[in-house]
Amino acid sequence: MTESAAQGRRAPRELGVAVLGLGNVGAEVVRIINENADDLRERIGASLVVRGIAVRDTGRERGVPAELLTDDPASLVRRDDVDIVIEVLGGIEPPRELIRTALEQGKSVVTANKALLADYTGELANAAAEANVDLYFEAAVAGAIPVVRPLMQSLAGDTVHRVAGIVNGTTNFILSAMAETGADYDSTLAEAGRLGYAEADPTADVEGYDAAAKAAILAAIAFHTRVTAADVYREGISSITAEDLASAAKFDCTIKLLSICERIREADGTERISARVYPALIPLSHPLATVSGAYNAVVVEAENAGRLMFYGQGAGGAPTASAVMGDVVMAARNKVHSGRGPLESTYASLPVAPIAEVPTRYYVAMNVIDRPGVLEGVAGEFAKHNVSIAAVRQEGDGDETQLIVITHRAPDGALAETVSALEKMEAVTKVSSVLRMEGTDE
Amino acid sequence: MTESAAQGRRAPRELGVAVLGLGNVGAEVVRIINENADDLRERIGASLVVRGIAVRDTGRERGVPAELLTDDPASLVRRDDVDIVIEVLGGIEPPRELIRTALEQGKSVVTANKALLADYTGELANAAAEANVDLYFEAAVAGAIPVVRPLMQSLAGDTVHRVAGIVNGTTNFILSAMAETGADYDSTLAEAGRLGYAEADPTADVEGYDAAAKAAILAAIAFHTRVTAADVYREGISSITAEDLASAAKFDCTIKLLSICERIREADGTERISARVYPALIPLSHPLATVSGAYNAVVVEAENAGRLMFYGQGAGGAPTASAVMGDVVMAARNKVHSGRGPLESTYASLPVAPIAEVPTRYYVAMNVIDRPGVLEGVAGEFAKHNVSIAAVRQEGDGDETQLIVITHRAPDGALAETVSALEKMEAVTKVSSVLRMEGTDE
Asked: Whole-angstrom Cα distance, residue A310 to residue B312?
C-alpha cells in the first residue's frame, strides 16, 4: 500500500513541515520523515509532509526532490501550509529572525541551535507563548540524550540543586585520548581534527563556548530563571598538559571539561545560581569519569529524585536528528490536539553568583626550592586566605621538587588569591598547574 | 507574603487534587505539594490544592489535617472540585475501578501502579482518550528515573530496538551483595529484609513478577504495541548460588536480574517482540554491571539515537514522589492549557515471540567425569542442536571436574534442548547451573 493510497482511504490531516538547513542533521531529519512516514502518522494522528527545505545553494544535488529546495527561508516559514518549522541552520542570524517570524505566524518551532537559545530563549519563548505554539529544543543540549525534557517535565515537581555534565564531544574526545595515550594537547587536537571530531577552527569547542551555551540553557530550565551565555564563567582545555593528566591519575582522578549549574543557598536562606565551564579533576570512581570519547553525560541532583544520570551520543547527524524528531512528533501531536508543551519559566529570577564567590576546590601544582620550611610557607599562604588543605604530595628533589596541593572547598576568589600569593613566593619557582576539582563531597 | 495573600492578589485558578493512598509515596507527595506550593503554582499557572486523601483507617494520626482524610475513595474521585487524581495505593482493585471512574469523570490521573498498568493500560488509556484527559505513569517504572517520558516523547520520532534494564531494587541489592561478599542467596535475602530492602513476603521481587510488570509497560511504550505481564517470560533469582557469582567473575562477568524488551526482525522483514525477565551474566565492562545496590538503570537502543542510558534511584518515597509530581505538574499544565499529553499507542500490534524462538546466549556449568572424550561428547551435543560454542573452561579434576560452556547466540529452545540432552549424558553427572548471557554482541 503506498503512502498516498493510505492517505486517500484514511484521509488523515496533514501537517506541513519546513526544514531550515540541510547539513548532517537536516539531511537525517528529512530521511527519517520520509522513511518512517507510516509510524510517524500513527504516532501523531496526522501525516508529516515536508513543504520545503531552505538551503543556501539550491543548484546542488542533495538527494532530495529539487522542487523542495528554496533559498528563501523567510517565505518558507510564512507559508500557510507550514505548521512546524525545524531550524538546523546554526548561528544567530538569520535563525533568530526566522524563528521569531515562524512563531508569530503560529508555527511551532523545533531547533537544535544552542548558541541562539543561550542568548535569546526569553525573546523566542515569549513569542511562542503569545502565539500559543511550541518552542522545543531537546537537540540543543547533549544531542540524542533526553535532558531538556526530563528537566522541564519529569522534574517539574522537584527542586534541582545541581546539573553537571560532559556536553561537548570534541573536548571529551581530546581529554579521553590524552588520558589514554599520554600525548600532548596539540598533537591530540590535530588527531581529533583528522578523525572528524574537531572542526577546522576548533575554538568554539576547545575554549568552552559550546559547553557554556549549553550550561546557560541547562541552568535556565533547571532553576526556572534567566541565564545567558554571558552569565557563564568559562575556561577551555587548551592549556591542559600531558603532565596535568598524569598528575591527576596519581590522585586517582581524570580531567574532564564540565558544564556545571548549581543552586547556591546562602546562610540567610537567599539563593543564587552559578553556571560555569572549566576542565576539572574528577575521581575515577565518579560516574562522569568513565564517559569517554565523543559520548556525553549529564548528572542531575534534585531534592527528591536524588542523583540521576543521562548518558548517550552527544552529537552526530542521526542522534541529533532523533532528538529533533521527538520534538517534532510532540509539537505535531499538540497541533492535532490543540495543546502545547511547557515553555521555559523564569519566575524564580535568581541572581548569578560571580565565580569568585562560588565554592570550589583547587588542585595546585608548583615547582619549589627543596629546602626546609618550604611546605610550611606554602601551607601558611593557604591558611592566610582561609583555605583548608585536603591533601599534599611532594615529588622529586633538588631543582625538580614539585609540590601538589588539593584544597577543601573555599570561595573561588580566595583560592585564586592564594595562587597569586604563591606565585610571588621566593621559594615557589613556578605554579605549573591550577585546576579545579569536582565530583567530591568535601 | 502568605500563600493566601498571594492568591488573593493574583487570583489564580485552583486545581483540586485527590490523593489515593498515604504510604511512603503518598506522604511524600502531600509533603511536596505543601512545601513547594509557590514553585508549583508558578510552574503550573494555578495552585494545587489537596481536596482529600483516601486511606483505609481515617482514625490514625498521619501528620496531615484530619479533615482531608476519607475512607471513601469512590466519592473522592467523583468530587467536582477534584481535577487530578494521584493513585499510590497499589494492587489491582480498587485502583482499577477508581482510576476508570476518575477518567470517565474528566479527571486526569497520575499513577505509580505497575501491576495495574501491566495488565490494564489499554482499558485505562481508552478511558483517558475518550475523556480527553491525561493518564501519566512515570513513577511505575524505575522510580525517579525518567524513562517512560523519554520513551514516549523524546524517542517518539525514532525506532526503539531494545530496552534492557535493572528495574527492581530488591533483587539488585541481593545480587550486588552476593557478588561483593560471596554469601549465599538465603542469608543475603535475610540481610536485605533486615535492612528494609526486601519485604516480608519477597516473592513479587525475587521471583521477577515486579520486573516483569515493568517489562510489559516498557515494551508496550517502546514498541507501540499491546504487551501484558502474561506476555513476559519470567525467571527469578532464588536459584542463583554463590558459586554462580564466583564463576561469573572468572569470566569477567557479574549476574543481574534484567528486564529485556526486544524488537526481533525476521529474515522476511516481519517483526515480533520479546519481553523477558531473567538473571543473566553481563560483562563487567557493560554499563549495567556497575549499577549496584538499590539503584536502577535502563539502557535504550534506538535506530537513530544509538545507545542511551538512564540511571538513578528506582524506589523509595521521595524519589518515587518526584516522578509522580513531575506527572502531576504536566497534567495540571494541560488542564490550564486545555491540552493533553500523548497516550500509549498500540498501532504496531506486534506479536510476542515465544521464549523458545528468541535468540539468547547460554552459560552452562556441569560436573563431568574426568576421562578422555568427555569434552568431545559435550561439544557434540551443542553441535547437534546447531548451537555454536564461544568459550569453554575446564576446572578441577577427578570427581571435581567442572566444565563451563558459554555459547554464541541461538534460539532459546535449541539451547534448552541442548541442556536437556547434556543432562542425559552418562559422562555428565550434574548440570549445576544454566544462565543466560546478555550485553554482548556475539
From this structure: 9
Which residues between 22 and 41 in chain A have a beta carbon less than 8 angstroms from any beta carbon of chain B? 28, 32, 36, 39-40
Q: Does the beta-carbon distance from A308 to B144 stay under 8 Å? A: yes
pLDDT tens digits along A87-105: 999 999 999 999 999 999 9
Kindly state the average pLDDT of the residues A239-264.
95
Mean pLDDT score, A331-340: 87
Is the ipTM higher than 0.90? The answer is: yes
Q: Could you tell me if B251 and B365 lie in one domain? A: no
Domain boundary among A272, A307, A337: A337
Task: Report chain B residues whose CB lies below 8 A from the CB of A348.
Answer: 39, 42
Residues B196 and B227 in one domain: yes
**Domain total for chain B?**
3
Question: CA A13 to CA A133: how far, in whole Å?
Answer: 18
Q: State whether A369 and A393 are in the same domain.
A: yes
Are A325 and B304 an interchain contact pair (Cβ–Cβ within 8 Å)?
yes
Interval B274-295 mean pLDDT: 93
Residues of A in contact with B322 (CB under 8 A): 155, 157-158, 302-305
| Contacts with B, A 217-236, CB within 8 Å | 224
Residue A23 assigned as binding residue: yes
Same domain, yes or no, for B166 and B271?
A: yes
Selection from B404, B409, B400 nearest residue B253 by Cα: B404
Minimal Cβ distance to B40: which of A42, A157, A311: A157
At residue A7, the pLDDT reads 37
Nearest to B256 by CA among B278, B271, B239, B272: B278
Question: B68 with B135, same domain?
Answer: yes
Whether B153 sits inside 8 A of A337 (CB atoms) is: no
Please tell me which residue, A343 or B151, carries the higher pLDDT value: B151
Verify that B215 and B80 share a domain, yes or no.
no
Q: What is the CATH number of the domain that holds A380?
A: 3.30.70.260
- Average predicted confidence (pLDDT) for chain B: 92
What residues make up the domain containing B66? 14-141+319-337
Residues A307 and A324 grouped into a single domain: no
- The pLDDT value recorded for residue B322 is 97
Q: Per the CB < 8 Å rule, is A338 touching B339? A: yes
Q: How far apart are CA A263 and CA A297, in angstroms?
A: 20
d(CA A298, CA A296): 7
Q: Whats the size of chain B, residue-wise?
A: 442
Query: How confident is the model over B406-432, as pLDDT tens digits?
Result: 999 999 999 999 999 999 999 999 999
Q: Give the H or E element holding residue A98.
A: helix A95-104
CATH code, domain with A74: 3.40.50.720
Q: Which residues on chain A are in Cβ contact (under 8 Å) with B313?
A: 305-307
First to last CA, chain B: 64
Angstrom distance (rounded) from CA B48 to CA A1: 49
Please say which residue of B304, B337, B370 terminates a domain. Answer: B337
Is residue B214 part of the annotated active site? The answer reads yes
Residue ranges of alpha helices (H) inside A297-373 are 317-337
Residue B342 lies in a domain: no
Q: Identify the residue among A48, A163, A322, A346 best suited for mutation to test binding to B, counting B beta carbons within 10 A and taking the highest.
A: A322
B3-36 tens-digit pLDDT: 333 333 333 489 999 999 999 999 999 999 999 9
pLDDT-derived band at A399 (thresholds 50, 70, 90) equals confident
Cis peptide before A94 (omega within 30 of 0): yes
- With an 8 Å Cβ cutoff, are A43 and B156 in contact? yes
- What span, in angstroms and rounded, lies between the C-alpha atoms of A394 and B28? 50
| A7 found inside a domain | no
Query: Is B122 among the domain residues?
Result: yes
Same domain, A121 and A152: no
Which residues, 6 or more positions from B9, have their beta carbon under 8 angstroms from its beta carbon?
none
Task: Note the pLDDT tens digit of each residue in B48-84.
Answer: 999 999 999 898 888 899 999 999 999 999 999 999 9
Mean pLDDT of the region B206-211? 97
Query: Domain containing A294 — which CATH number?
Result: 3.30.360.10
User: A442 lies in a domain?
Assistant: no
pLDDT tens, position by position, A149-186: 999 999 999 999 999 999 999 999 999 999 999 999 99
